[in-house]
Specification:
The complex is a heterodimer of chains A (about 55) and B (about 500). Chain A has about 55 residues and is an alpha+beta fold. Chain A has 2 helices and 2 strands, in the order αββα. Chain A starts with a helix and ends with a helix. Chain B is α/β, with parallel strands linked by helices. In chain B, strands 6, 7, 14, 15, 16, 17, 18 and 21 form an 8-stranded antiparallel β-sheet that branches. Chain B has a 6-stranded parallel β-sheet with strand order 1-9-3-2-13-22, covered by helices on one side. In chain B, strands 4-20-19 form a 3-stranded mixed β-sheet, with helices on one face. Chain B is globular. The relative contact order of chain B is 0.20. The chains are: A alpha+beta (about 55), B alpha/beta (about 500). Chains A and B meet through strand 2 of A and helix 10, strand 21 and helix 11 of B. Strand 2 of chain A pairs antiparallel with strand 21 of chain B, so a sheet runs across the interface.
């Protein structure tokens, strides 16, 4: 019974919480890379362009 | 009337003047012409001649320590009729309302007078500086955009060379007696009574070493921020430490406008760059919230072909070729200020906070006339460093937010362990700061030296803070205010 409860806890509480954690921590709107001050969306755009290539 | 003091002693007027003004730069000439309208008898004293001479300029020599001022003492000032207006650029701006708020970000008292009081004679100052109908007001970065930065209010004088423009008016004024080649070497007090004193006379010397006395009911020092402090400190025979130096502030709080290349930028939206150079200033809300100093940040993008001469096409092709390859481009930037189309550097003119450790002091050695020379120690503090870095970062973020440009900040902005590379703008301010409280300054709200009944100071040395714009317009505004004030006194 206890083993089943731990398994359910892990499946429905712990793992989803860990997965959601990065979204819950506020991320800075701007990033500085090599002195360039960029919007976070700049990085996402650059990443999608890199994948497209 | 004009007297050249190298001509001999018989020419020096023996009569007592109403006001004696030392210095013929923008402050001295403006105050003299304003006072002349009131019928007061004025002695206007200039150390140099009508033209530049080496022998006069040499008397500015001294030493410099601290930040590199690139010869602030000898190259950035002019010692002849018209003063430093003989080589100024003509850029003018108004101090902002926030520059006059009592709650300062640096801990020392700010201006004891309001912006309204300073701007009272703006129309007249605009005429003095030939600014015409130019708009001095700041305006939004774009009409429909809310931003932390706005276009700086700026106007350009031709520039007015005060020595050329106002020489005839001085010569023709029946109330002004101009004395040239007359070096002020000492201020002498009369009998001291309690905590206040009065100047009895001033001692002048010509270039032959002859001494002369001149007397007036009131005196105005308008020799520039470094020399104003130097003369007060040198006049220490009757009061140890010099006249007006009860608080120890004479010579202290020397301020410049900080010239920092905060980084490079690439244009994203050309509509923000409709004028050739984009000059931005932080809005008051940003200054309040971050508790930083004011300033102007200038972005000058390369849009047009910048090569010239018979080889311009070849040069243009080489430039375009270099711009295609990042490695070569970065290599080129190590050797020159190399920009591709739509790129540029961000220069700045930033407020330096009043810092008592940034100061003019006297040395032991004397000049050819026996006046002790100065040492200029220009220093910034942690508040300035924080101001520079915060303003640079806020600008970079704002330009990214608006999608106007992307900014690459200089290494010394991002990395706080690196010293910030700072140059100057040849704006010397603050060495006889204005303060209502005598313990925090040298002159009162009317520019009268605390504790001396009849001695006043003109020029940027009275600025308690330097603001984020060029000082000349404010120097002229304060000179008009001083001239009118002295004209009203009996």
């Amino acid at each position: 019974m206890n083993r089943m409860r731990r398994r359910l806890m892990k499946m429905f509480v712990i793992v989803p919480s860990l997965l959601a954690l990065p979204r819950m921590i506020p991320t800075p709107e701007y990033v500085v890379i090599d002195g360039w001050v960029m919007k976070r969306s700049d990085l996402e755009l650059a990443e999608s362009m890199r994948r497209a290539q | 009337m004009h007297t050249d003091l190298d001509g001999g002693s018989s020419a020096i007027p023996k009569a007592t003047f109403d006001v004696c003004i030392f210095g013929t730069g923008p402050a001295g000439l403006t105050a003299a012409l304003e006072l002349a309208k009131t019928g007061k008898r004025i002695a206007l004293i200039e150390a140099g001649a009508f033209e530049y001479t080496e022998v006069s300029q040499k008397l500015y020599d001294g030493t410099e320590t601290g930040l590199n001022t690139w010869n602030a003492l000898s190259n950035k000032r002019l010692r002849y009729f018209g003063g430093t207006s003989g080589h100024w650029s003509g850029r003018c701006g108004l101090f902002d309302e926030i520059d006059f708020t009592a709650d300062t970000y640096h801990g020392l008292p700010g201006w004891p007078i309001t912006r309204t009081a300073v701007l009272e004679h703006l129309g007249q100052a605009v005429d003095v500086l030939d600014l015409g109908q130019q708009d001095l007001a700041s305006r939004p970065i774009k009409s429909d955009v809310d931003s932390d930065f706005a276009h700086s209010g700026v106007a350009f004088s031709p520039p007015t060379r005060f020595g050329q423009k106002y020489r005839q008016a001085i010569n023709e004024s029946p109330n002004v007696h101009l004395v040239t080649q007359a070096n002020l070497v000492e201020l002498r007090l009369g009998a001291l009574s309690g905590s206040s004193a009065s100047l009895d006379h001033a001692v002048l010397k010509n270039y032959k070493g002859q001494s002369f006395k001149i007397r007036a009911r009131r005196y105005v020092l308008a020799l520039g921020a470094i020399e104003n402090a130097r003369l007060l400190l040198n006049s220490d025979k009757q009061i140890p430490g010099g006249i007006g130096n009860h608080s120890g502030y004479v010579g202290r709080c020397f301020m410049e406008h900080l010239n920092v290349q905060i980084g490079r930028f690439v244009v994203r939206d050309k509509t923000y760059f409709s004028e050739r150079q984009l000059e931005l200033s932080p809005v008051p809300d940003l200054l309040h919230s971050q508790r930083i100093g004011n300033g102007v940040l200038a972005l000058d993008p390369t849009f047009l072909p910048i090569d010239y001469g018979r080889l311009r096409y070849l040069k243009g092709m080489v430039r375009e070729g270099v711009c295609e390859f990042e490695t070569i481009r970065e290599y080129a930037r190590k050797f020159s200020d190399f920009n591709c189309q739509g790129e540029g550097v961000i220069s700045s003119m930033l407020e330096q906070c009043p810092n008592p450790e940034s100061r003019v002091t006297l040395k032991a050695d004397v000049d050819a006339l026996g006046l002790r020379k100065v040492n200029l120690h220009w220093a910034i503090n942690d508040t300035d460093r924080r101001s520079i870095r915060t303003l640079a970062m806020e600008l970079a973020k704002e330009l990214a937010r608006l999608d106007a440009a992307r900014v690459q900040l200089s290494d010394f902005i991002v990395n706080e362990s690196q010293p910030i590379l700072i140059s100057q703008h040849a704006h010397h301010m603050g060495t006889t700061r204005m303060s209502r409280d005598p313990s925090h300054g040298v002159v009162d709200e009317n520019a009268r030296v605390h504790g001396v009944n009849n001695l006043y100071v003109g020029g940027a040395s009275v600025f308690p803070t330097g603001g984020g714009t060029n000082p000349t317009l404010t120097i002229v505004l304060l000179a008009l205010r001083l001239g009118k004030h002295l004209g009203q006194l009996a």
